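Researcher: Structure for this, please.
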Amino acid sequence: MVVGLAPAAHGGNRTGRMFTGDESGNFLFRALHAVGLANQPESIAPGDGLALSGAFLTAPVRCAPPDNRPLPEEFEACREYILRERAAMPSARVLVALGALAFETCLALVAGAGEPIPRPRPKFAHGAEAALGRFRVFSTYHPSQQNTFTGKLTQPMLRSVLRRAVGAAQEG
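Model: Predicted structure, token format:
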């Protein structure tokens, strides 16, 4: 599972498919394609032929939040969706968190699946990996324009995290 934050107002919220039709999605799909998780390097609209293999994109918030930062009430209102998705994929044991808020969501999903979260709690950091019982959570900066245009997140950085996640998933 690749966990983002929320659909972008001019991307997923407009097109109806997560990370589709915006620069963040373009950046993410190039990386997913490069590591073999997507059949093409971009997604412009539903029906454009994009297919993921071994990956599922999701987010804890289902509508475009004001100022790109969801409120706690929005996380709560949408929680059931991501919980149902996680329950529908019982074999999914590797999660990739796109940003710190997604990382907190991943920890909550792991805890909700019955795995204890150790104290001190794992901290978000780009490239970090947390082994939590039967789960592994990988962290990367979110592919937002703010991060990619400034070089805080580059294609090699994101691809490295995704390759490690793919390797962990293949280990079983």
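Researcher: Any notable elements?
Model: The radius of gyration is 15 Å. Residues 2-171 form a domain with the Uracil-DNA Glycosylase, subunit E fold (CATH 3.40.470.10).
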